[in-house]
Amino acid sequence: MIIKAQDELTHQDPEAFKAFLLAVLAGLRRKEIDLLEWDSFLWESGVIRVQATRYFNAKTEDSLGDVAVDTQLLERFRGYRARATGSFVIESDGQPRSGTNYHYYRCQEVFERLSAWLRQNGVNTNRPLHTLRKEFGSQVCAIHGIHAASRQLRHTVIATTDLFYTDGRKRALTGLGHLLKSDDRVVLLSQDQSGPSRTGDSPALGGG
Fold first, then answer.
1. Burial class (CB in 10 A: 0-12, 13-18, 19+), 27
2. Integer Rg of the chain from CA
3. Rounded distance, CA 129 to CA 53, Å?
4. Which of 97-101, 113-117, 134-138, 151-155 has the lowest mean pLDDT?
5. For residue 141, is pLDDT > 70?
6. How confident is the prediction for the chain on average, in pLDDT?
7. Domains plus CATH for the chain?
8. Residue 42, H or E segment
9. What kind and span of H or E run contains 82?
10. Global pTM?
11. Is the pLDDT of residue 196 over 90?
């Protein structure tokens, strides 16, 4: 989908593409994308810093912090920075509002266009932008583990990461079983004997 978004949105809707990249490759939340300013890019450190600003305050202190991002993403946004006309990363006619106690997004139109594009391309969820963040978290978790994912997602507790960003169906095996020597006294069960028989007897226990 990243390649498709690059092909279709780069020139057609660059602001929507920026939002797409920040969600799927940096795992930023909608509000964080909406109010992200250019000084949050720490180019030399290779991170995007989610920080409190005049307009943005995180729900919790843990939501603030640095998100390590790919070099290619930074290079793409360096290009956008060179052409920027204001302090906000996503350019919009909407103006930021401080002190609002309701959901207001200065980039609402950008988000609506991106959400429509995502749904046209198979992301049929109630919150398609959040689905991109979840994909980011899941990829980090699969490659680097749950603790790295929790840090990148800036979750208050790791249980949140475990609940929404890991695959509980995946068996966590050590892969060290091959080091065991075979025991001649063990009788291997054939595949059709691996479970209880139809009569309820256990083949491994001889029915009793």
1. buried
2. 24
3. 23
4. 97-101
5. yes
6. 81
7. 2-165 (1.10.443.10)
8. strand 41-42
9. helix 71-82
10. 0.74
11. no
